[in-house]
Amino acid sequence: MTPPFGTRLRQAMDKRGPLCVGIDPHVALLEAWGLGDDVAGLERFSRTVVEALAGEVAVLKPQSAFFERFGSRGIAVLEQTVADARSAGALVLMDAKRGDIGSTMAAYADAFLAPTSPLFSDAVTVSPYLGFGSLRPAVDAARASGSGLFALALTSNPEGHEVQRAVGEDGLSVAQSVLRQLAAENADASPLGSFGAVVGATLRDIGEDLEINGALLAPGVGAQGATPADLPAVFGAAAANVLPSVSRDVLKHGPSVAALREVSARFVDEVRSAIG
């Protein structure tokens, strides 16, 4: 039996350091690497990131949209990227942000969380904004396959507060309701639950209970302005379970494999120094 994602993530974070590096082959990065904005460039970019980092960092996070825009050939590159990264020892978090209801949500879960799928990943990002209960097919699929989910809770984009900070009849913000339901899914899990939340590292005065017994994926470190030193103030007592996500501030150092490894190792050291 495959250990639950939360167990494998805790082990990877303790061994390799708490860092998630995105694989975001957007046009500007492809150009900066001297690559074409085409499938060949996409493949070269992805192979290089996997070669450099899959044996070094805890988590790699391909952003599905940057592969989907090339159609079926782009998806084929994504499938290979996932397989190669997992074979090299990294946990793969598919950044797809899927959210729907019923059979459609079940189909999304099959795409990313069924072991028979060519896109099978260790975890996937999901959107709970059709109601947390709409995620049930993905929760059940993740439990069955030993995978995990990261649900959007408190994102760093300025528009996010319109929904996430809205207060319901029970007096809870939407974000706090999501966090509480994630905590319920993680009840009794040890050392870490498999159902995490996305909480932006650029936020201040969060005012929500972030202790969900699961990982907190924290985008915003690097190009968006947050630093590893900010993490204790933002996440408080939950900082030990934070998984900072960095993309551009690592990827801009490619295509040099050595430079990618060097800068990711520096981020790991800075995060460990900040949160212990």
TrEMBL record:
Protein name, UniProt field: Orotidine 5'-phosphate decarboxylase
GO molecular function annotation: orotidine-5'-phosphate decarboxylase activity
Keywords: Decarboxylase, Lyase, Pyrimidine biosynthesis
Pathway this chain belongs to: Pyrimidine metabolism; UMP biosynthesis via de novo pathway; UMP from orotate: step 2/2
Presence of keyword RNA-binding: no
Coiled coil: none
Source organism: Streptacidiphilus cavernicola
Active-site residues, Swiss-Prot/TrEMBL: K97
One Pfam short name: OMPdecase
Reactions catalysed: orotidine 5'-phosphate + H(+) = UMP + CO2
PANTHER family attached to this UniProt entry: OROTIDINE 5'-PHOSPHATE DECARBOXYLASE (PTHR43375)
InterPro entries: Aldolase_TIM, OMPdecase_AS, OMPdecase_type-2, OMPdeCOase_dom, RibuloseP-bd_barrel
Domain of life per record: Bacteria
Keyword Lyase annotated: yes
SMART domains registered for this protein in UniProt: OMPdecase
Family: Belongs to the OMP decarboxylase family. Type 2 subfamily.
Gene it is expressed from: pyrF
Cited HAMAP family: OMPdecase_type2 (MF_01215)
Domain Orotidine 5'-phosphate decarboxylase stretches: 18-263
EC number assigned by the record: 4.1.1.23
